[in-house]
Design brief:
Layout (H helix, E strand, L loop, with lengths): L1 H58 L8 H9 L4 H14 L21 E7 L4 E7 L4 E10 L5 E10 L4
Antiparallel strand pairs: 1-2, 2-3, 3-4
């Protein structure tokens, strides 16, 4: 009788170990599958990030903040770049406050509206590109600028265009 009990306990223990092994193997394979899927997603996202980083670098090529030669030009004149860039943008935005027609935008606005410069991008130490609108018509302007010793900014319109209105 004692031998039969030990035999049943032994068979039960073997079945329990076999069940544990099969179950653990299945869990292990599921985890490996999840890890592979996650690694593939991470690789896909890393590739997407690389493409986006390259696009940002390409888009920011003509940007004063990334142009070492233009920055050196201002630093040699004793300007602090972190203060100068907002200063120039603010001076250009201040032209929106002038009475009557805009002093830089060469197009008349529609009735009851005023042309306003919306977005400004400093390309280098001499050039600016900006867009303007009156809410109905819009366009872009290309300017040159110069900063005098007494911190006055002079803008010169080089080129402009107005998008056609449908």
């Amino acid at each position: 009788m004692k031998q039969k009990i030990f035999m049943y306990l032994f068979v039960f223990a073997v079945l329990l170990v076999l069940f544990q092994y099969v179950n653990s193997k299945r869990i292990f394979e599921d985890l490996n599958t999840k890890i592979e899927k996650r690694d593939n997603r991470i690789k896909k996202h890393e590739d997407s990030l690389e493409v986006l980083n390259n696009a940002v670098l390409d888009a920011s090529h003509f940007n004063l903040e990334r142009n070492e030669d233009a920055l050196s030009y201002f630093e040699n004149d004793g300007h602090v770049i972190s203060e100068l860039i907002p200063f120039v943008k603010d001076k250009l935005y201040e032209t929106n406050e002038s009475k009557g027609e805009h002093p830089i935008v060469p197009y008349s606005s529609s009735e009851g509206r005023k042309m306003m410069i919306n977005t400004v991008k400093l390309l280098n130490h001499k050039w600016i590109i900006a867009d303007f609108s009156d809410g109905e018509y819009w366009g872009e302007i290309f300017l040159t600028y110069e900063i005098t010793k007494d911190m006055q900014v002079h803008f010169n319109l080089v080129e402009s265009f107005l998008y056609p209105f449908d």
